[in-house]
């Protein structure tokens, strides 16, 4: 019998005119009917290529089959066998380049909306079911330290706790979550969801110690002295890159990290109820076209910028941001200036940004990443009035840990070197996520945290 | 939560607290600071670690009321709790045997210099202290500094105590009498640090200034505190707060520290 051809369900989103007035979530997720309808589209194919596309290897057809049976309780249990943070992944993973890009349907029709289905069951659990602890290993009394509570650290800590280790998770900020807390705005990932997912990790027996900066509060060596038998470093890539153009230290020029940390972690958008200030002008330029840049420009709009634009040296095709985020930004009235690069920022007598000079670019031959290299067009410079500039051109690993503990080997960009078992050049110290790869995705960091946790378990068993 | 165990008013608008923060003490060195957030609505502000007591796990913070956050903190009492304290932060001050070191503090800058002066004295340096304040009632840590210093001069803007004038006047006198100064370490308002640097420059006396840029995370992830030193951008939270005074772009820092002036006023009015 021929399979009924059902179109991919559309993800519901709030009206752009309304949503730019607040920081509440834009995408609304599937209704139950939509979820069932979408689940029917899965072919339940034998080769399960989608599973291979998922960095943490969720058994996707299995959980989709459970959705079809309306057994959401079992569906979420199935997901949590591999993924400790499904409500987050269902929202922020770039599924179109991971599980969904290898979906068997693709080519004939649109891929199954795996991410939104994952989100559906995770959200269902939050509303309908008490969070349940999974099967835990017996407590073995061995202390393991996890440094950094971003996606890599949370995942490694949760998995190691499940193996039976006693886990302390050290975080430098006043709240856990890493980029999920300070980077991704409320309108893409509500902090309530992050809090619930973090509570789940804590329920596995992970102790989270906030306000503790490894490298300063204590060093990696101190952790061994304190009886930790192994250490996982998941400290991310939180060092912002600047452009090194004139005027970059003028008032009104922010790194994306500063801009987003003020808004997301410190809630500056609720100033003066929250005491951390943020200042924004009428015309805002965000430099870059990754997800961070999209977050910044959409935040700028919500903070009341009359015009908020993306300035990017390549074309829309090369933009690293998720398509959905670029679409959402366009709907919200964000202007895009492609093939454009800033060369100079100028200020007024008070040192505040007044205008920005850009140069137009054309695309040349592909570089070593395969992306066509932007080349400046001579004499194409033009100046426009700008009051706020946010630099979102990427970031590197924070050098604090290798600087304060001797013996770490690093790559040229400062990323920690690790072997096939995620072990650094210091015995017993493992690392994963952006600290080893440079800026990557949330789910790639989770995948690394998961594999590193398994490798640490093997290592610790060999040590006995 | 971090509990306040002692409180003392040092001068009008300047309060000293001892706070339980046992984790901060382990690696703390002179010149380092903490980030403090009073409660979930508060901002993160930097405060120097003025002293620490290993036996009861406390650190000493000296806070001058200059805006909303410092006013809220100074209103706290013994037994109250501070939500977040992160530290120690920043690169410690270089403590070596330099010879003769002039320690120059303006106002509450003395709080940062006290542990530095003590460490330098213990290392065998001759320590000459100059403390400046607007008037007599605002001079802090004089007794503590007297115990350490080989020589101490107090200056007040209005002449109500010590020498009438600025810290630079006292520094010029030291130089004029032929004192060989091997190093100056200076902490206070930006204009004062700039003025001290300009006195030291023609004499080529190495001058370390402790900068007070606007911090946010203070772990090197945002660049809010970036300063230009020797033509290059540095993050003062991790590369500093100490820098070579001869290389610092003080004028840029002055402008950058006025970034949120309007918002600071608004928050204070609440």
Can you walk me through this structure?
The complex is a heterodimer of chains A (464) and B (270). By secondary structure, chain A is an alpha/beta fold. In chain A, 33% of the residues lie in helices and 17% in strands. A five-stranded parallel sheet of chain A has the order 5-4-3-6-18. A five-stranded parallel sheet of chain A has the order 8-16-9-10-11. In chain A, helix 14 links the parallel strand 10 (307-311) and strand 11 (335-337). A seven-stranded mixed sheet of chain B has the order 12-11-10-9-13-14-17, sandwiched between helices. Chain B is of the alpha/beta class. In chain B, helix 5 (167-176) runs parallel beside helix 6. Helices cover 26% and strands 32% of the residues of chain B. The chains are: A alpha/beta (464), B alpha/beta (270). The interface between A and B is large, with 41 and 42 residues.
Topology:
The complex is a heterodimer of chains A (464) and B (270).
Chain A (H helix, E strand, L loop, with lengths): L11 E2 L2 H4 L7 E3 L2 H8 L9 H5 L6 H9 L3 H9 L5 H7 L21 H15 L14 E5 L3 H13 L2 E5 L8 H4 L8 H13 L2 E4 L10 H6 L4 E4 L5 E2 L12 E3 H10 L17 E5 L3 H12 L4 E5 L11 H9 L3 E3 L2 E8 L5 E14 L5 E5 L5 E4 L2 E4 L3 E2 L3 H5 L24 E3 L2 H4 L4 H22 L1
Parallel strand pairs in A: 3-4, 3-6, 4-5, 6-18, 8-16, 9-10, 9-16, 10-11
Antiparallel strand pairs in A: 1-2, 7-17, 12-13, 13-14, 13-15
Chain B lengths: L1 E10 L2 E7 L1 H4 L7 E5 L7 E4 L2 E3 L4 E7 L3 H7 L6 E2 L1 E6 L10 E7 L3 H13 L3 E8 L8 H7 L2 E6 L6 E2 L2 H10 L6 E5 L2 H14 L3 E4 L15 E4 L2 E4 L6 E3 L5 H7 L4 H9 L1
Parallel strand pairs in B: 9-10, 9-13, 10-11, 11-12, 13-14
Antiparallel strand pairs in B: 1-2, 1-7, 2-6, 3-4, 3-8, 5-6, 14-17, 15-16
């Amino acid at each position: 019998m021929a399979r009924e051809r059902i179109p991919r369900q559309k993800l519901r989103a709030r009206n752009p005119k309304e949503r730019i007035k607040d920081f509440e979530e834009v995408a609304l997720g599937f209704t139950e009917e939509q979820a069932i309808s979408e689940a029917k589209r899965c072919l339940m194919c034998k080769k399960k290529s989608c599973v291979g596309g998922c960095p943490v290897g969720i058994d996707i057809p299995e959980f989709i089959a459970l959705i079809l049976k309306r057994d959401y309780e079992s569906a979420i249990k199935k997901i949590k066998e591999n993924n400790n943070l499904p409500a987050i992944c269902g929202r922020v993973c770039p599924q179109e380049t991971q599980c969904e890009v290898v979906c068997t349907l693709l080519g004939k029709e649109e891929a199954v909306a795996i991410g939104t289905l994952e989100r559906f069951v995770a959200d269902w659990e939050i509303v309908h079911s008490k969070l349940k602890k999974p099967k835990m290993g017996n407590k073995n009394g061995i202390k393991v330290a996890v440094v950094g509570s971003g996606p890599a650290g949370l995942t490694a800590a949760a998995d190691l706790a499940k193996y039976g280790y006693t886990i302390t998770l050290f975080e430098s900020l006043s709240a856990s979550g890493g980029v999920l807390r300070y980077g991704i705005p409320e309108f893409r990932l509500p902090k309530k969801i992050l809090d619930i997912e973090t509570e789940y990790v804590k329920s596995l027996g992970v102790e989270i110690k906030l306000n503790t900066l490894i490298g300063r509060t204590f060093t990696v060596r101190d952790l061994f002295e304190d009886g930790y038998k192994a250490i996982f470093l998941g400290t991310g890539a939180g060092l912002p890159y600047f452009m090194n153009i004139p005027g970059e230290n003028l008032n009104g020029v922010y790194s994306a990290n500063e801009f987003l940390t003020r808004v997301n972690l410190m809630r500056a958008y609720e100033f003066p109820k929250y005491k951390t200030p943020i200042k924004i002008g009428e015309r805002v330029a965000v430099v870059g076209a990754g997800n961070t840049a999209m977050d910044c420009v959409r935040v700028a709009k919500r903070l009341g910028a009359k015009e908020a634009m993306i300035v990017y040296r390549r074309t829309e095709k090369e933009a690293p941001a998720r398509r959905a985020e670029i679409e959402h930004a366009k709907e919200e009235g964000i202007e895009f200036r492609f093939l454009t690069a800033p060369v100079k920022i100028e200020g007024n007598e008070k040192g505040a940004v007044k205008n920005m000079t850009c140069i137009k670019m054309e695309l040349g031959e592909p570089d070593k990443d395969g992306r066509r290299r932007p080349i400046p067009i001579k004499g194409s410079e033009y100046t426009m009035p700008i009051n706020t500039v946010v630099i979102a051109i990427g970031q590197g690993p924070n050098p604090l840990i290798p600087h304060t503990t001797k013996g770490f080997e690093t790559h040229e960009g400062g990323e920690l070197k690790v072997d096939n078992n995620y072990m650094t050049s210091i015995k017993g110290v493992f690392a994963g996520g952006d600290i080893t790869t440079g800026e990557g995705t949330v789910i790639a960091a989770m995948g690394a945290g998961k594999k590193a946790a398994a490798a640490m378990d093997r290592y610790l068993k060999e040590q006995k | 939560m971090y509990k306040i165990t002692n409180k003392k008013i040092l001068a009008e608008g300047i309060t000293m607290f001892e706070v339980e923060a046992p984790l901060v003490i382990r690696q703390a060195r002179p010149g380092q600071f903490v980030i403090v957030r009073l409660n979930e609505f508060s901002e993160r502000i930097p405060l120097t670690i003025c002293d620490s007591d290993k036996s009861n796990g406390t650190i000493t913070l000296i806070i001058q009321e200059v805006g909303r956050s410092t006013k809220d903190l100074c209103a706290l009492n013994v037994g109250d709790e501070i939500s977040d304290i992160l530290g120690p932060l920043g690169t410690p001050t270089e403590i070596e045997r330099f010879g003769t070191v002039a320690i120059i503090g303006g106002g509450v800058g003395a709080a940062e210099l006290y542990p530095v002066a003590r460490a330098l004295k213990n290392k065998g340096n001759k320590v000459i202290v100059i403390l400046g304040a607007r008037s007599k009632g605002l001079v802090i840590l004089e007794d503590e500094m007297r115990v350490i210093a080989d020589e101490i001069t107090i200056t007040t803007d209005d002449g109500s105590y010590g020498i009438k004038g600025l810290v630079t006047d006292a520094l010029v006198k030291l130089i004029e009498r032929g004192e060989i100064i091997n190093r100056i370490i200076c902490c206070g308002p930006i204009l004062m640090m700039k003025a001290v640097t300009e006195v030291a420059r023609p004499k080529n006396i190495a001058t370390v200034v402790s900068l007070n840029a606007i911090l946010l995370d203070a772990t090197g992830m945002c660049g809010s505190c970036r300063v230009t030193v020797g033509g290059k951008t540095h993050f003062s939270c991790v590369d500093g707060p100490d820098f070579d005074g001869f290389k610092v772009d003080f004028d840029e820092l002055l402008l950058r520290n006025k970034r949120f002036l309007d918002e600071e006023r608004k928050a204070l009015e609440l």
